[in-house]
Amino acid sequence: MATSDKKVRLKVHRQDGAELPETRRWEEFEIPWQPQMNVISALMEVQKRPVTTAGKTVPPVVWECVCLEEVCGSCTMRINGRVRQSCSALVDAIGKGDAPIVLEPMSKFPVVRDLVVDRSRMFEDLKRVKAWINLDGSHELGPGPRQSPESQEQTYPLSRCMTCGCCLEACPQVSASSDFIGPAALSQVRLFNLHPSGKMHASERLEAVMGEGGVEGCGKAQNCVEVCPKEIPLVDSIASVGRDATKHMLLGWLLK
């Protein structure tokens, strides 16, 4: 329930469907301000009463969210020109006077509708680099290999990746004309190659990123670390994977 006469204005970039680029348009909404309101709760208010500032009733704005605590990564969008999680974007912190809060879908992924995009390419890239531990569970393997506290401290930050897409959106090397897999998948190569069991298939992962669109595609812009909501050391990961890939290539050449 609103606690004052203060209003919040949203300017939303909309599109009615993936195959309907001709429907791209801007629509503005005004909703009552509430304490501790974030972008998701603001969109929920629009959903209750989808009427633009011009007085036109329109279909409710479509967006995606699950956890509402910056863990699932699904609510990523561009807010006032910067990619971030909308669940942790507080209206009072991002508002600029009477100017509307501008919401847009990520531009590096196909738009499904309004603020929802298809992040399938990220999951396909995880398959490409074999971002998993090969244990089929068909027989008893006994206790897993020990991992030192120092190794755990190194890998834990890498494990926090939620495949939100922020790093790809900010990366100038990722575009419709580029096949660069981006920082997220490369960081997962580092994570699983550091794992005591994952090391058994380290060469396969390195070979997967030695070809077109792999680690050589990074331009070292470092935008990824600036926007990562989990503060993952993505540039360090890319450098580490690059060194390991070079060593693997040289070793393969020497053994020929």
Structure explained in plain terms:
The protein is of the alpha+beta class and 256 residues long. Helix content is 33%, strand content 13%. Strands 2-1-5-3-4 form a five-stranded mixed beta sheet. It has a two-stranded antiparallel ribbon with strand order 6-7. A hairpin with a 2-residue loop joins strand 6 (111-113) and strand 7 (116-117). Helix 4 (149-159) packs antiparallel against helix 6 (183-194).
SSE order and pairing:
Elements: E1 7-14, E2 25-32, H1 39-48, E3 76-79, E4 82-85, H2 91-94, E5 101-104, E6 111-113, E7 116-117, H3 120-128, H4 149-159, H5 166-170, H6 183-194, H7 202-208, H8 223-227, H9 234-254
Helix pairs in contact: 4-6, 6-9
Characterize this entry briefly:
This protein has 256 residues and is of the alpha+beta class. Helices cover 33% and strands 13% of the residues. It is elongated and about 70 Å long.
How is the main sheet built? Answer: 5 strands, mixed
Q: What class, by secondary structure content?
A: alpha+beta
The share of residues in helices is: 25-40%
Strand and helix order: EEHEEHEEEHHHHHHH
**How large, in whole angstroms, is the Cα Rg?**
22 Å
Estimated share of beta-strand residues? 5-15%
The order of strands across the largest sheet is 2-1-5-3-4
Tally of individual helices: 9
Mean pLDDT across all amino acids: 93
Total number of β-strand segments?
7
Low-confidence stretches: none
Shape type: elongated
Distance between the termini: 72 Å
